Amino acid sequence: MNVITIVVSSLISFIVGYFSTVWISKQAKKRGFIGKDINKINKPEVPLMGGVGVISGFVAGAFTLLLTDIRSERVIPAVILSSLLIAFLGLLDDILDIRQSVRALLPIFASIPLIVYSVGHSVISIPFVGPVNFGIFYYIIIIPVALTITANAFNMLEGLNGLGAGMGIIMLSALAYIGLTRKGPSYEAGLLALVSIFSLFAFLLLNKYPAKIFPGNVGTYFIGALVGAIGIAGFMYTALVILYIPYVIEFVLKARTKFKGISFGKVDNNGRLYWDEFPNSLTHVVMKIGRFKEYQIVLILWLIEAIFSVIAVYLQTTIIVF
User: Fold this and answer.
1) Mean pLDDT in the chain?
2) How confident is the model at residue 171 (pLDDT cuts 50, 70, 90)?
3) C-alpha 52: how far from its chain's center?
4) Which of 25, 116, 200, 318 is deepest in the core (most CB within 10 A)?
5) Residue 264 backbone phi and psi in degrees, to 5
6) Secondary structure of the chain: what % helix, strand, coil (to 5)?
7) Distance (Å) of CA 198 to CA 60, 69, 128
8) C-alpha distance from residue 35 to each of 39, 50, 158 (Å)
9) How far does the chain reach from its first CA to its final CA, in angstroms?
10) CB neighbours (10 Å) of residue 212?
11) Nearest to 161 by CA among 222, 218, 203
12) How many C-beta atoms surround the C-beta of residue 249 within 10 A?
């Protein structure tokens, strides 16, 4: 693909993402879609629904790619449809506060575009094992379960300024590198990951510490679904598994509380976060190591994810040859 096209698509993703986030911030505040920033001493009120800005930037950049590269006519629509269906679920959750059981199951139906896209490909190369053909189970179990897990996982590990957006950027960077060093669907998925990074970065500028806007459930579900959908569309399952290891740990910690645990911390008089109970989240694990400022905890978690991203790239590009 022409380098200029990639640059233009990425710039459009960033510009639309940034100004959409600014606009939704103002609108959310006017309409009362606000939440308290629990990790601050004064508990300021911050607009929600910032995920709408991420979605806008992603869709704008993705359609620019679609208009300029006919090879992506199958990959991009499948990723867009599945991601947007799950984003709609997050939007409903923001507005209606739907039950957790419903939130866990609805992403299964959102996987249908990816299933249709993947027909004819049911082989997964497993590290140190080799290619395994899962047949019909690839479509009725593996894809729906993978998308459901990736979408719900991001919603669990959230609550600190910039955390989810930064984690998404790191994970998508790994998928972009893997895809862009390959051919076919993996390359197209890599392009989409690259464009997505710019939309997330635009949002991060406003979501970083101290946050001016929160992603809301619409944002956390969308980012998780986007990472999952791109990994599935690019057949980068090994990378997805490694990238989501921190979220597996988060799942185990949250499961102990029957998924009622929080990721927020307790704030001391110096504005540092701490946790003096059994950890409910990876954020609490970091807090028990020492008392850090919120942005320091986020940086530590980003570093952990970056390490797993390097491992994911190595295993997918060196052990898995595709």
Assistant:
1) 90
2) very high
3) 14
4) 200
5) -65, 165
6) 70, 5, 25
7) 11, 19, 34
8) 12, 12, 14
9) 20
10) 16
11) 203
12) 16
Q: Max Cα separation, the chain? A: 59
Structure tokens at 232: 């599935």
Q: Is the torsion defined by CA of 234, 75, 14, 264 positive or negative?
A: negative
Taking alpha carbons only, the member of 243, 234, 235, 227 closest to residue 132 is 235
Residue 82 in tokens: 């599945």
Compute the distance between CA of residue 258 and CA of residue 175 in angstroms, rounded to an integer. Answer: 32
Tokens of 193: 């990951």
Alpha carbons 313 and 322: distance in angstroms, whole number: 13
Residues composing the chain = 322
- The total of other beta-carbon atoms located within 10 Å of residue 319's CB is 13
Can you tell me the distance from the alpha carbon of 98 to that of 104, in angstroms, rounded to the nearest whole number?
10
The DSSP output letter for 120 is T
Q: Tell me whether strands 130-133 and 34-36 are parallel, antiparallel or unpaired.
A: unpaired
Q: Looking at residue 95, what is its pLDDT?
A: 83
Cα–Cα distance, 94 to 261 (Å, whole number)? 18
168: nearest Cα among 233, 229, 104: 229
Residue 163 CA to residue 182 CA, distance in Å, equals 29
- DSSP 3-state of 308: helix
Phi, psi (deg, nearest 5) at residue 256: -60, -25
> What is the rounded average pLDDT of the residues 81-107?
80
Helix axes 163-180, 184-207, angle to 10 degrees: 160
Coil, helix or strand at residue 38: coil
274 pairs with which residues across the strands? Answer: 266
Q: What one-character-per-residue DSSP string does 231-288 give? A: HHHTT-HHHHHHHTHHHHHHHHHHHTTTT------EE-TTS-EE--SS-SSHHHHHHH
The better pLDDT of the pair 86, 74 is held by 86
Contact assessment for residue 280 and residue 260, using Cβ atoms and an 8 Å cutoff: no
Tell whether the model's pLDDT for residue 71 goes beyond 80. no
What is the model's pTM?
0.93
Residue appearing with tokens 């039950």 = 99
Give the pLDDT band of residue 92 (cuts 50, 70, 90).
confident
Structure-token pair, residue 23: 């606009």
